[in-house]
Design brief:
The chain is α+β, with helices and mostly antiparallel strands and 642 residues long. The two termini are 13 Å apart. Mean pLDDT is 93; it is low at 632-642.
């Protein structure tokens, strides 16, 4: 099991066994390089831990624990968790500022305690075989256990082909579960008990800001101080720390903040694209010149994405509908090859400070819903996506058909996301008759409704949209397939100042007009840091990170022969043998893309989704999770209790 996740920790490993429990760990050494080996124990060896992640406020916590009489054998953050658990039991996680998944074996109580960080930065999976409770950082470790079966969960696939993610605790594999973000689990006396230790909450967010000028300055000051401190503690490491630089507002601000705490040259890393539609290197260079960072860049084209896509799916362990994780996989390799293990990035700002186009879209659609017969109000939607030039040419009828979904009831919980989800779900037309039959009575929205917090329906549409992004899309896709998995594939740890829980809790109570003033996104963030970054970056139109999709694999304009695995896995025979998709429909899609036909959202998502599903089945079902001729079977950081 531990060998399967060796990529997560190449610097050392350890195994501990005590009675019914076994813990294993593969270490990525970042703090206390000499003394931080795991599994680690307390003074009398009654409590043991295996831990994946970082506790950024460990210095302050250690000082408090020393005052209360605890003794430390190391300088690392892992031992702080042990002593905090001794002090406060399961509630110890409430005082941790960090990103974690860990397991503590409490030998005297014969109790196993698992926990995952508030926002789901680090993964944690588990299953119960009937004889063994098995848990790990990645599913491939669970599949190494002889008692764990492997079978695709079609309801989970249905969720991915709607939302882009599965709803926790469900995963793409039947009877293998994900511990949700902000939750802990206790396994004791053969029983599992799960409880929430943190909840994302927007119930306190007002629409407008009272006493606007003076109050706004107060909010600006608070945000500056919180982000400064969040960045400061995330620079704690005994190895060099770099930064990702996308050319957008968020990574530019993080890079600027890092420079306040270091006199040594900061090394930054970025992705550039061959296709100017996706490339942001012009803005990256503006920040590099302004801050004088030492910069490295990978240049990514469609052939690069196709070449490494099997490796991406091997690490993602689930189907994906976009190729965006692939360039990030290449970027983390550049980071590691450059001698870095840690990078700070800008994730989380869009979700919690009001940066996404879907928030603008929600505001306009709610405005439109007040006068649904209006011909002018929906035209505002054409201004939202300057990086998608075709949208300006859309007819009013198309705008109404796409964005008008759910317009009759803006109060319903998924009002903000229905146009996206209903559009994505159309790719389920490529399912085979057998798959459609099995899913016939499946209400894909029912499970999501059950996970919504009390009072959700009373929040504004804007806040409901923020919750759906922050509680589900962020951990379910961005921090997993596009974050932890592709970074840890090359033993690189991402750290996120905007995801400091203090920043998130502050942002969740902000008046909405300070997040988005009319349609000016991240208004307060720009007020707080706009004068510290280049004007070209501060004033640029919002452009989300994207990568070439279907044409990475089947490009009629390219003379390159498609990768062998693409032709193989999309062949009629392989599609038929897998049984999930309809062979004629897939064949028609492949022919259309090869012929250079229109390739819009549906075609792109369908091709990537079908191909990644076929890859995942080949790698984890047909080849028993031991790697394939298509991908390099990387492997490490796992645990087992039986």
């Amino acid at each position: 099991m531990i060998g399967r996740v060796r990529h997560r920790g190449p610097d050392g490993s350890g195994i501990f066994t005590n009675g019914p429990a076994s813990l294993a760990h593969a270490r990525l050494s970042i703090i206390d390089l000499a003394g931080g080996g795991q599994p680690m124990h307390n003074e009398d060896k009654s409590i043991w831990i295996t831990f994946n992640g970082e506790i950024f406020n460990y210095v302050e916590l250690q000082s408090e624990l020393l005052e209360r009489g605890h003794q430390f054998a190391t300088r690392c953050d892992t031992e702080v968790i042990l002593h905090s658990y001794e002090d406060k039991g399961e509630d110890c996680v409430r005082e941790l500022n960090g990103q974690w998944s860990f397991a503590i074996w409490d030998a005297p109580k014969r109790r196993l305690f698992l926990s995952r960080d508030r926002l789901g930065v680090r993964p944690l999976f588990y299953t119960f075989t009937g004889k063994a409770f098995v848990f790990a950082s990645e599913i491939k470790s669970l599949l190494a256990h002889p008692g764990v079966s492997r079978e695709i969960d079609l309801e989970a696939l249905n969720q991915i082909f709607t939302f882009w993610f599965t709803l926790p605790p469900r995963t793409i594999f039947k009877n293998i579960f994900e511990l949700p973000p902000g939750h802990s689990l206790v396994f004791e006396n053969g029983k599992i008990r799960i409880q929430r230790h943190w909840q994302l909450d927007f119930s306190g967010a007002a629409e407008t800001c009272p006493e606007s000028p003076r109050q706004e300055k107060k909010y600006v000051y608070e945000l500056r101080e919180l982000l400064l401190d969040a960045t400061r503690i995330r620079l704690r490491a005994d190895v060099p720390v770099g930064a990702y630089l996308s050319g957008g507002l968020d990574s530019s601000i993080v890079t600027t903040l890092i420079r306040k705490f270091t006199d040594t040259p900061l090394e930054t890393f970025s992705v550039a694209f061959e296709d100017p539609e996706f490339d942001e290197s012009e803005y990256q260079q503006e920040v590099i010149r302004a801050l004088g960072t030492k910069h490295q860049q990978i240049r990514c084209g469609p052939s690069d994405i196709a070449r490494i896509f099997p490796d991406v799916i091997w690490h993602a362990e689930k189907p994906i509908l976009r190729t965006a994780p692939a360039p990030m996989f290449l970027l983390s390799k550049l980071v590691r090859d450059s001698g870095y293990k840690v990078v700070l990035t800008g994730e989380g700002s869009d979700e919690f400070l009001g940066g996404y186009d879907i928030y603008k879209e929600t505001k306009i659609r709610a405005f439109w819903a007040a006068q649904p017969e209006s011909k002018l109000r929906p035209l505002l939607l054409k201004s939202l996506y300057p990086y998608l030039p075709g949208i300006r040419n859309l007819s009013p009828a198309f705008l109404g058909a796409f964005f008008g979904v759910g317009l009759d009831d803006p109060s319903q919980p998924f009002f903000s996301h229905l146009p996206r989800w209903e559009s994505t779900s159309k790719i389920r037309m490529f399912f085979s008759d057998a798959t459609k039959s099995e899913l016939r009575n499946c209400d894909v929205y029912a499970g999501l409704r059950e996970l919504l917090p009390a009072g959700f329906g009373r929040w504004t549409p804007f806040c409901r949209a923020q919750y759906l992004e922050g509680a589900f899309f962020l951990p379910g896709y961005l921090l997993s397939s596009q974050g932890d998995r592709v970074a840890m594939a090359h033993s690189v740890e991402g750290r996120y100042p905007f995801l400091d829980h203090r920043v998130v809790e502050f942002a969740s109570t902000l008046p909405l007009q300070l997040k988005m003033k009319v349609l000016n996104e991240k208004y307060l963030l720009k007020q707080a840091f706009g004068d510290q970054i280049p004007a070209a970056v501060r004033n640029r139109p919002k452009q989300p990170y994207r990568a070439p999709d279907a044409h990475s694999f089947l490009n009629p304009a390219s003379r390159a022969v498609p990768e062998a695995y693409v032709e193989d896995l999309l062949s009629t025979d392989r599609i038929k043998n897998t049984g999930i998709f309809d062979p004629p429909a897939v064949s028609k899609l492949v022919s259309k893309i090869k012929a250079g036909g229109p390739c819009g959202f549906r075609e792109n998502s369908a091709l990537v989704g079908i191909l990644s599903t076929q890859l995942m089945i080949h790698q984890f079902i047909e080849n028993t999770g031991e790697g394939t001729d298509y991908a390099t079977a990387g492997t490490r950081n796992s645990t087992l209790c039986r």
